[in-house]
Design brief:
Length: about 270
């Protein structure tokens, strides 16, 4: 009886030890190096990450660590670059338990979806949960907020700000009304062009001969333009001095260069 009890106890311990390993092996978007989540929580977060990754045609990730000695921004950028490559669509949430910092790194279209103001709102929900030890709630807020921003689309008048040069790049979006108006104008112009040409050249074949010999003279002139000087004007946008790394305001997204790629994002302590 005692041997049988030991046997079942050993099987139970093996099952408990195998459960998180199995969950981690089946997860491609969640890397819980610290062990903050249960196997069921990892599976739930993996579903959210997989769904959002398909929606943005890229990759959305979450990683936890307590051994990182680099700056959270550099760690996050490098991690995201390894997953999706430079300038491809993606985002990663880093929970650095050793330095007690949270950081969100974005790339590709996620830079435009998660603007500075949207990132501030996201961190406002994530950080208190982390301070309270509610790690699953913090991770859920990250995925749900990111999904909501992707669903809402890039805000009107959006722009990117290079934090090193101050260069502003505007993001132009065409609304469905603008597209419909452009389509109607193009159709009207095409019909008008067809009617005018048809009315001018209603000639039967064989009844008209074009006097090409009389009208074959060609006069060519040479026109030269020389570019003397060109100028590119940039202005530096003051950086936000609050606790958000890579700050900024309005509908813009602050960007920086790292490892040959362009990244957005920011973070806070908790």
């Amino acid at each position: 009886m005692r041997k049988l009890l030991k046997y079942w106890l050993l099987l139970l311990l093996l099952a408990l030890a195998w459960a998180p390993l199995t969950a981690s092996a089946n997860s491609t978007h969640i890397e819980d190096g610290v062990g903050l989540f249960t196997a069921e929580e990892i599976q739930s977060l993996e579903k959210k990450a997989h769904y959002l990754s398909d929606k943005i045609k890229g990759g959305v990730y979450l990683v936890t660590t307590n051994t990182n000695s680099e700056e959270p921004r550099k760690f996050s950028d490098d991690y995201l670059r390894e997953k999706v490559g430079n300038d491809n669509n993606g985002a990663v949430l880093l929970l650095d338990m050793g330095q007690r910092e949270v950081y969100v790194s974005t790339s590709g279209n996620m830079i435009d979806y998660i603007t500075d103001s949207r990132l501030n709102n996201m961190l406002d929900q994530i950080t208190p949960n982390l301070s309270d030890g509610q790690y699953y709630d913090a991770a859920t807020a990250y995925f749900d907020q990111a999904d909501a921003y992707v669903e809402a689309g890039v805000p009107g008048g959006h722009y990117r700000i290079d934090e090193e040069t101050g260069k502003i790049t505007y993001y132009k979006t065409i609304t469905w009304m603008e597209g419909l108006i452009a389509l109607l104008l193009a159709a009207v112009a095409a019909i008008a062009f067809f009617v005018i040409i048809k009315s001018k050249y209603q000639l039967k074949l064989g009844t008209y001969s074009y006097p090409y010999q009389e009208n074959a003279d060609v006069n060519l002139t040479v026109n030269e333009n020389q570019l003397i000087n060109s100028f590119v004007t940039t202005r530096r946008i003051p950086r936000n001095t609050n606790n958000l790394s890579g700050g900024g305001g309005g509908g813009g997204s602050s960007t920086h260069s790292s490892g040959g790629g362009t990244f957005g994002g920011g973070g806070r302590s908790f």
